[in-house]
């Protein structure tokens, strides 16, 4: 793979997924927006991170938090009923239609006017590899965010331009390596890699991933026709843990600034308890507020 030569010293913003654990990320991003700390060279979102990134690009403070709290008990939002009736545990028509267009509309004008490149990370089911889809304008590109957040086993495959996509976390859970153009990472057409990255995680620093939901996906036999994707499912935990070790190395070198929950996150990917969800959001806000000076210095290294 050719080495990247041109780079920017303006940090990239990298957002991990995790379903409703994204409430932590929402708290962090809302504080950054309130303080005007929005000068990133690019935004990279995986699954729930892509949803958070979308609201960050449209400058809608509080939107992720209020939508999860407002609709968490609505069976059209995320439920077994939705899965049984639509094939998606997270109701695509409701989330990306009813909420997006009417109940809590996205500020499409602000989103489309933004000059900050935004990428939704997806997994190509045929090849078992990550893809980084540029999300340039709404509503046309909203399907790319949906694809990034379509969990294996409980979501339908999303087809875009002849490719079959599911949740990006399976193949690249924390895409700082691609955002920074590091050796071995995929080169994304038109993207100028960043020398540095602000990375928001939804798991604490001591977390070690096991088989998790991938074991369920493998046992379901839904993807037996896609051997490369099966391999990606089998190896996700190992790759994820190694990726985090690489992230800590870059943090020690000063090339990444990592914001993560202080302790184990008990909120699951579809927790409905409003108090727990709000507490996690507040935890994200407190982390960002406590590190404002550090974040500001990181973003303005050459100011």
UniProtKB/TrEMBL annotation:
A motif (GXGXXG) lies at residues 17-22. Coiled coil: none annotated. Keywords: Hydrolase, Lipid degradation, Lipid metabolism. Pfam families: DUF6363, Patatin. The keyword Hydrolase applies. It comes from the Bacteria. Residues 13-180 form the PNPLA domain. The active site is at 47 (nucleophile), 167 (proton acceptor). InterPro entries: Acyl_Trfase/lysoPLipase (IPR016035), DUF6363 (IPR045943), NTE (IPR050301), PNPLA_dom (IPR002641), YjjU-like (IPR037483). Signal peptide: none annotated. The keyword Lipid metabolism applies. A motif (DGA/G) lies at residues 167-169. A motif (GXSXG) lies at residues 45-49. PANTHER family: NEUROPATHY TARGET ESTERASE/SWISS CHEESE D.MELANOGASTER, PHOSPHOESTERASE. This is Patatin family protein. It comes from Thermophilibacter provencensis.
């Amino acid at each position: 793979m050719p080495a990247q030569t041109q780079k920017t010293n303006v940090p990239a913003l990298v957002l991990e997924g995790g379903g409703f654990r994204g409430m932590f990320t929402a708290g962090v991003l809302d504080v950054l927006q309130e303080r005007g700390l929005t000068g990133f060279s690019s935004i990279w979102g995986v699954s729930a991170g892509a949803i958070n990134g979308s609201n960050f690009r449209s400058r809608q403070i509080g939107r992720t938090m209020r939508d999860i709290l407002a609709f968490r008990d609505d069976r059209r939002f995320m439920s077994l009923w939705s899965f049984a009736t639509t094939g998606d545990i997270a109701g695509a028509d409701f989330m990306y239609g009813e909420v997006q267009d009417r109940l809590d509309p996205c500020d499409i004008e602000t989103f489309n006017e933004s000059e900050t490149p935004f990428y939704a990370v997806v997994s190509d089911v045929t090849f078992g590899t990550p893809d980084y889809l540029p999300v340039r304008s709404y509503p046309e590109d909203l399907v790319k965010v949906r694809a990034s957040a379509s969990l294996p086993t409980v979501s339908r495959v999303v087809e875009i331009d002849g490719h079959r996509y599911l949740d990006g976390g399976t193949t690249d859970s924390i895409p700082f390596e691609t955002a920074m153009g590091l050796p071995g990472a995929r080169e994304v057409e038109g993207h100028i890699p960043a020398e540095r990255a602000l990375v928001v995680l939804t798991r604490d620093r001591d977390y070690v991933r096991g088989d998790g939901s991938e074991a369920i996906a493998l046992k379901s036999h839904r993807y037996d026709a896609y051997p490369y994707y099966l391999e990606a499912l089998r190896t996700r935990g190992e790759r994820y843990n190694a990726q985090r070790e690489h992230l800590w190395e870059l943090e020690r070198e000063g090339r990444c600034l990592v914001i993560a929950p202080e302790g184990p996150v008990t909120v699951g990917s579809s927790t409905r308890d409003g108090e727990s969800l709000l507490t996690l959001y507040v935890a994200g806000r407190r982390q960002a507020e406590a590190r404002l000076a550090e974040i500001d210095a990181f973003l303005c290294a050459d100011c």
